[in-house]
Amino acid sequence: MNSGILQAFQRELTCPICMNYFIDPVTIDCGHSFCRPCFYLNWQDFPILTQCFECIKTTQHRNLKTNIRLKKMASLARKASLWLFLSSEEQMCGTHRETKKMFCDVDKSLLCLLCSGSQEHRDHRHCPIEWAAEEHRENLLKKMQSLWEKACENHRNLNMETTRTRYWKDYVNVRLEAIRAEYQKMPTFHHEEEKHNLEIKAKMAHRREILRGMYEELKKMCHKPDVELLQGFGDILHRSESVLLHMPQPLNLELSAGPITGLRDRLNQFRVDITLHHDEANSHIFQYGDLRTICIGCDHQNAPHTTATPTSFLAWGAQTFTSGKYYWEVYVGDSWNWAFGVCNKYWKENNQNDNIYGEEGLFSLACVKNDIQFSLFTTSPLALQYVPRPTSHVGLFLDCEAGTVSFVDVNQSSLIYTIPNCSFSPPLRPIFCCIHL
Description:
With 437 residues, the chain is of the alpha+beta class. It is 36% helix and 21% strand. The protein has helices spanning 3-12, 36-41, 68-86, 113-116, 129-183, 189-222, 226-243, 263-267, 345-350; strands at residues 25-27, 33-35, 49-51, 58-60, 102-104, 109-111, 126-128, 276-281, 311-317, 325-331, 338-343, 362-370, 373-378, 383-384, 393-399, 404-409, 414-419, 429-436. β3 (49-51) and β4 (58-60) form a beta hairpin.
């Protein structure tokens, strides 16, 4: 073949980023091709869109498919380079003066056919050198894919952790003001919890660099000459597997609830007994996971329950309130998926026989279970509460004149949250929603 044509052919099988023969080539929207590892490593912070490194056109990086034909041609080019290397005089077998064509997987050595059948190597695993090299290269690519998926997962977790931390800091500031109004100071251990969260983020960022570094090492190994690749494969594979261990997990952000001395004694001055009417409803709110029977201001024996399909119950208070201050408690036990609070008159009329998705006019505390996690939140406006889930009694303090609804963890004697500036439209009515199994 003409040398000029041969060089042009080799250029077409060369990645424009690493300038080596393609490994696991991908062809993007504009038609240009790159090694998958090169394309991955040249993204900036894992964007959804990126630019082609040749024509600068924007392309999506999701679901990139291997260009099988290009991969086979690059493999053939590597084989040609291998045979050119093996045909040199210094690579001839010193004993039999034959070309070394076999690879001994035990000794990691190159052998001629006669040596591979000798007594020394007879019981070892042998295969043609080009087969061994491609097999090891494919194993490296599989390991690189696992590393890259972990790196992407870690990056998503890091972004999520950054966002959650920002919201969490805002929440801490709001909670500082709420507790300062009740107790004049925030316990110092909240700062330790924030410090621990920053440590988790730092570990994730460090792990991202380790994963990327390991990925780059595997990429370099893929481009090594076949002999070096075969001899160094075992060590780098072992190190890459160790890197996948001990991945840092996102932190479950939660503030410890500090007790407020005398809180319940003060609230009990406004204690009222609430009568709740249980109505089975077709509400779809909070239908996540398993629930135990919830007791709403009654004995466990009288609590409704069923072992059939989970059923939603809306319990409305018989009393209504237009002015004044009132406090009552609800027993939730160790249950999940419940909500209670007060609602405006028009809200009750609009949601009597329907679901209660709409939060406008509903001032409530709710607990939702999803898999093994739970979320505690308040409505009007919707806000997550980063405090431990109440596991016994929860109190509600309604101040009609101040326009506030406060929720209290009775066992901890701690304030969960106060909904400020409530847009009350009296009469206000207590409400409780739960799901029973």
